[in-house]
Design a protein that fits this description.
Blueprint (H helix, E strand, L loop, with lengths): L13 H11 L6 E4 L2 E9 L17 E6 L13 E2 L10 E2 L50 E8 L2 E6 L9 E4 L5 E6 L9 E5 L4 E4 L1 H6 L5 E2 L2 E3 L10 E6 L6 E6 L3 E6 L20 E4 L9 E4 L5 E6 L5 E6 L3 E6 L4 E7 L5 E6 L5 E6 L3 E6 L4 E7 L7 E4 L16 E7 L2 E7 L4 E3 L11 E3 L2 H4 L9 E3 L9 E2 L3 E3 L6 E6 L3 E6 L4 E5 L1 H15 L20
Parallel strand pairs: 5-7, 22-32, 26-33
Antiparallel strand pairs: 1-2, 2-37, 3-6, 4-12, 6-7, 7-8, 9-10, 10-11, 11-13, 14-15, 15-16, 16-18, 17-18, 19-20, 20-21, 21-22, 23-24, 24-25, 25-26, 27-28, 28-29, 29-34, 30-31, 35-36, 36-37
C-alpha cells in the first residue's frame, strides 16, 4: 500500500498557491463543492516553464504516486555511472527534484519528504547535471524517504516532492530517442529496483527510485533494460504493472495486442522468441523456450492496441481494456479468461478495480463510465455525464458515507472519472435494475435491491465476452459533482487519504485537500506561522469527521 502522509509543514502556503493559480486562470475555481464540503486547491506541481520538449510521437502525461520507505540498511555510497537511454525513456518525475534546471540556488526543503538539506560549496550546485566541488555536500547519502510524484512530459520523466510546496520537480530524467508513456512503482520491491518506465519505442526500464534521486545527472543510473532495440516487440508500450506479491514479476502491454510477462531478476540471455500467433482473434498464451529467457511468457489478448491494464488488489485477476472496445478479465495465475464485455461503442481507454475486487470501472470513447460486477460478470451501471472521452477512472478507497457505522448491510462506493472531473456515489442496494424479461406486451419492469437477484439470474459461463448491452437494459448513474478544474483535458486522478490529485494531458498537476483536512489546515496555519521551522507531527489518520478512513 502507498503511504500518503503529509506533514503539516507542507500545508502552510496553500492560500497563496491558490491565489496565484486563480490569477493565472481566472475562469478556473480554486475549490469545488461536494455534499461533505469543499475540496480546496492546496498546491500545484508542474514541469519547468522554460523547458522545451521535443516530441517523438504524441504522448499524454500519466502520474504515479510513490512512497519510499526507510532504507533497509546503510550502505557505502558507490560511484554512479550514468546509463544513457539510447532508445529513449519517458520522463517519470519524482517529488524531490534536486534543483531547478540551470539554476544555482541552494536547495533547502522545509516540510517536504525526509530531512531538510541544504546543498552548498565553493562551486555552483545544480541538480540537473551542474558541477559540484569536492568540498560540497553531495546527494550520495540522500536516503530518499518520503512520498514522490512521478510524471512524464514529452521526452522527460519528472520527480516531484509530494509534500513540498515547490511547483517545480526535484529531478528530471531525459530520454533521447523516444518518449516515456507509462510507469509503475512497487513499494514492496526487495532488491531496490522499484520503478518501471515504458517508452513509446517499446523499450522498458527498471530502476531504483532512490538511486535516481541520489544521482545529479539527467540520465537513468543502474537501469535494467528490457526489449532493447525491439528484440521482443517493435510495437509501442501502452501500459505496465507490477504483479502484486509477484516477487519482482511485471507485465507490459503493447499496441499490437500482446502482453509480456517479465521477471526483473533475469537478464534475458536466453532465446526471447515466441511461436507465431495462429489466430489473431483468440486469446492465447505462449511460454518462453528457455528457462533463461525474459520475457517468460506472451499473452495475445486482442487485435489492436491494449490501452490499459490493472491488477485486482490481491493480484488474483488482471483486467485489460483495448482498442476493440472490450474489457477482459483474466485469472492471472491460471492464465485463463474469466469474463468481459464490450463498450456501448468505441474503444475503452482506462480501467480500475474497487478495493474489495468486486467491481471494475472502465471508461472510453463512448463518454460513459461503466461499472462491471465480477459476481454477475456484466455491466451493472452506466455513469452518464461526460461530454468527451473518459481518460481515467479510480475508486476512492478512503471515503466512507457519512452514516456508515460499519454495521449496515448497504455498500456504497465513491469513485471519480476524468476528461473533466466527475465524482460519483454508487450504492449497490439502492440501484434500480431492469429485468431482462418483459411482461407480454408490456415495458420492462424495474426492481430495487441486489442486482443478482433481479437482473438476469443466468450468469454467463467462464470465458464468455458479453456483447454491448442495450441502452435501456443498464441502470444509469448521475454524477455527484462535475467540474472543469484545469484549462486542458484531464488524463488521470489519484485519491489519497488527505487529497485528490488531478493531472492534465500537458503535465500540470493539482492537489485538492479533502474538506476535513482543509479545515484542519486552516486551524493549524496560525500556529505554524508563529513557530519556528521545526518539523511538525504528521496528520492523524482521521481529522474532523467520519467521511474518510
Amino acid at each position: 500500500m502507498i503511504n500518503n502522509s503529509n506533514s503539516i509543514n507542507g500545508m502552510m502556503s496553500s492560500s497563496s498557491s491558490a491565489a496565484a493559480a486563480n490569477a493565472q486562470s481566472p475562469t478556473l475555481k480554486t475549490y469545488f463543492k461536494t455534499p461533505e464540503g469543499r475540496y480546496k486547491l492546496h498546491y500545484e506541481k508542474t514541469h519547468p516553464s522554460g523547458l522545451l520538449h521535443y516530441a517523438h510521437g504524441k504522448s499524454v502525461t500519466q502520474v504515479t504516486l510513490a512512497h519510499l520507505k526507510d532504507k533497509p540498511a546503510p550502505t557505502a555510497p558507490a560511484p554512479s555511472s550514468s546509463l544513457s537511454a539510447s532508445s529513449g525513456v519517458r520522463f517519470a518525475a519524482a517529488a524531490r527534484f534536486l534543483g531547478g534546471g540551470n539554476g544555482s540556488r541552494a536547495l533547502g526543503f522545509v516540510g517536504g519528504n525526509g530531512n531538510s538539506k541544504t546543498f552548498s560549496g565553493s562551486s555552483k550546485s545544480s541538480a540537473m547535471g551542474g558541477s559540484i566541488s569536492s568540498n560540497s555536500v553531495t546527494t550520495s547519502n540522500y536516503d530518499g524517504k518520503g512520498t514522490y510524484l512521478i510524471f512524464n512530459v514529452g521526452d522527460t520523466v519528472f520527480i516531484s516532492d509530494f509534500n513540498s510546496q515547490d511547483r517545480d520537480p526535484i529531478k528530471s530524467i531525459h530520454f533521447s530517442n523516444s518518449n516515456p508513456v507509462c510507469h509503475a512503482f512497487d513499494p514492496e520491491a526487495k532488491d531496490g529496483h522499484d520503478l518501471l518506465i515504458g517508452l513509446n519505442s517499446g523499450d522498458v526500464y527498471s530502476v531504483s527510485l532512490r538511486q535516481q534521486l541520489q544521482d545529479v545527472g539527467k540520465k537513468l543510473v543502474g537501469a535494467q533494460h528490457y526489449n532493447k532495440d525491439g528484440s521482443v516487440s517493435s510495437s509501442r508500450c501502452t501500459s505496465l504493472a507490477w504483479v502484486p506479491d509477484g516477487d519482482g514479476a511485471f507485465v507490459v502491454a503493447y499496441a499490437d495486442g500482446n502482453l509480456y510477462v517479465y521477471e526483473k531478476s533475469k537478464d534475458g540471455s536466453g532465446d526471447s522468441s515466441f511461436p507465431v500467433i495462429k489466430d489473431q482473434t483468440q486469446f492465447s498464451v505462449a511460454h518462453a523456450r528457455s528457462s533463461k529467457s525474459n520475457p517468460i511468457a506472451r499473452w495475445h489478448i486482442c487485435q489492436g492496441s491494449i490501452n490499459s491494464i490493472a491488477f485486482s488488489t490481491d493480484g488474483t485477476y488482471l483486467a485489460t481494456v483495448g482498442r476493440d472496445g472490450y474489457l477482459r478479465v483474466f485469472d492471472y495465475s491460471k492464465e485463463q479468461l474469466i469474463c468481459g464485455g464490450k463498450s456501448y461503442y468505441g474503444a475503452l481507454l482506462c480501467c480500475a478495480w474497487s478495493g474489495d475486487g468486486k467491481y471494475i470501472l472502465t471508461g472510453g470513447e463512448d463518454d460513459l463510465v461503466q461499472v462491471w460486477s465480477m459476481e454477475d460478470r456484466k455491466v451493472v451501471a452506466w455513469g452518464e455525464g461526460h461530454n468527451s472521452w473518459v481518460s481515467g477512472v479510480a475508486f476512492d478507497p478512503y471515503w466512507l458515507p457519512p452514516t456508515s457505522d460499519g454495521t449496515s448491510d448497504s455498500v456504497m462506493y465513491r469513485f471519480g472519472s476524468v476528461g473533466q472531473l466527475l465524482l460519483w456515489d454508487l450504492a449497490m442496494d439502492e440501484i434500480v435494475v431492469p429485468l431482462r424479461r418483459c411482461p407480454p406486451g408490456g415495458s420492462p419492469t424495474f426492481s430495487t435491491g441486489n442486482q443478482s437477484s433481479h437482473w438476469d439470474n443466468n450468469i454467463s459461463p467462464v470465458g464468455t465476452l458479453q456483447p454491448a448491452p442495450s441502452i435501456r437494459d443498464v441502470p444509469k448513474l448521475s454524477p455527484l459533482v462535475a467540474h472543469r478544474i484545469h484549462s486542458e483535458p484531464l488524463s488521470g486522478l489519484i485519491f489519497t487519504q488527505e487529497s485528490i490529485l488531478t493531472a492534465c494531458r500537458e503535465g500540470h498537476i493539482k492537489i485538492w485537500m479533502r474538506p476535513s483536512f482543509a479545515e484542519s489546515q486552516s486551524r493549524e496555519s496560525d500556529t505554524l506561522l508563529s513557530t519556528s521551522s521545526k518539523e511538525k507531527p504528521l496528520l492523524a489518520g482521521k481529522v474532523g469527521g467520519s467521511f474518510y478512513k
